[in-house]
Specification:
There is one protein chain. By secondary structure, the protein is α/β, with parallel strands linked by helices. Helices cover about 35% and strands about 10% of the residues. It is built from 12 helices and 7 strands. Strands 3-4-2-5-1-6-7 form a 7-stranded mixed beta sheet, with helices on both faces. Strand 6, helix 8 and strand 7 form a beta-alpha-beta unit. It starts with about 55 loop residues before the first strand and ends with a helix.
Length: about 300
């Protein structure tokens, strides 16, 4: 593989014009958005017991790629299949908290207090959401100070791991919504996670940014967290009608192979509506294509993580 000039380690090459999968008249298995045969993911069996949690960082240093939307709706979908899920808002913008209907600017205790005050425990910050089995550690703009305050702390990269450790046995999944940067807060998320899910908007500049992110994941694995692995890449805002989207999808599958989830999240006006409503799309518009896509993604994640 010849590295791209601006992104060593990732050969972008020339985007070739990919054609949408053609209908199969011969009875063969149809192809999905990734160009691979469509697979059905059955409803998972219910859990008899819960914990310890699989900690997954939802990460991409590029903004506007669907990290928070994916964290909320994947978490709600996992909960709908009987998993106990904790969402961690590690972005000072607090979009995850707002997206679940929390008045985060009015909170007395947030993730910032959890990270910076030894007397504050996760239980002090924890909030129940409207979704059964889905809990939240909320955040607001106060968290922006933590990046500076953590610099002089001993074991600063492990601060989040220490804070979450006492409650991991209660949950099956912990999803961490990272801020759109590769700073110390994101490193904290990667240092305590077992795996990383990367939401990637299906456009060229998102593809270019994957090189920097995968390089950071490798460095954290080598230096801080040997368990860390790339769980997969979720293609978001996908529109199969556009040539550009099909080209980018074909290229990311060529580079990352089976690490690209079969499930692609298509564009829909329903997602902005859910942000205003403060609910996951699975409860706001349960029969929509977006809700169906995230339920399918949850089944795929469960099969990969628990199969």
């Amino acid at each position: 593989m010849t590295p791209d000039a601006d992104n060593p380690g990732l050969d972008l090459g020339e985007l070739r014009h990919a054609q949408p999968p053609a209908p199969r008249a011969d009875g063969a298995v149809p192809l999905g958005p990734t160009g691979r045969p469509v697979r059905e993911f059955p409803d998972p069996a219910p859990r008899i017991s819960h914990g310890p949690a699989k900690v997954i960082a939802i990460c991409n240093q590029k903004g506007g790629v669907g990290k928070t939307t994916t964290t909320i709706n994947l978490g709600a979908s996992l909960a709908s299949y009987g998993r106990r899920v904790l969402l961690v808002d590690l972005d000072p913008q607090g979009a995850l908290s707002a997206g679940l209907g929390v008045a985060h600017h009015e909170l007395d205790l947030t993730v910032h207090n959890l990270l910076m005050e030894s007397a504050v425990s996760a239980d002090d910050v924890l909030l129940r959401t409207r979704v059964d089995g889905l809990d939240l550690l909320p955040s607001n703009i106060d968290l922006s100070a933590a990046e500076i305050q953590l610099v002089n702390e001993v074991g600063r990269e492990q601060t989040l791991a220490r804070a979450l450790h006492p409650i991991l046995d209660r949950y099956d999944y912990v999803l961490i919504d990272c801020q759109p940067s590769l700073g110390l807060l994101t490193v904290n998320a990667l240092a305590c996670a077992e795996s990383v899910i990367i939401p990637m908007e299906c456009e060229y500049f998102s593809l270019r940014g994957l090189a920097l992110l995968t390089d950071t994941v490798e460095k954290v694995r080598d230096r801080l967290n040997f368990r860390l692995r790339l769980a997969g890449i979720v293609v978001t805002m996908y529109d199969s009608r556009t040539l550009h989207a099909r080209d980018v999808m074909a290229r990311v599958v060529e580079v990352f192979g089976d690490k690209v989830y079969d499930t692609a999240i298509s564009r829909t006006v329903r997602f902005p509506e859910t942000s205003v409503a403060g609910e996951p799309i699975t409860s706001w518009a349960p029969k929509s294509s977006g809700a169906a896509a995230y339920r399918q993604l949850a089944r795929e994640v469960i099969e990969r993580e628990e199969g």
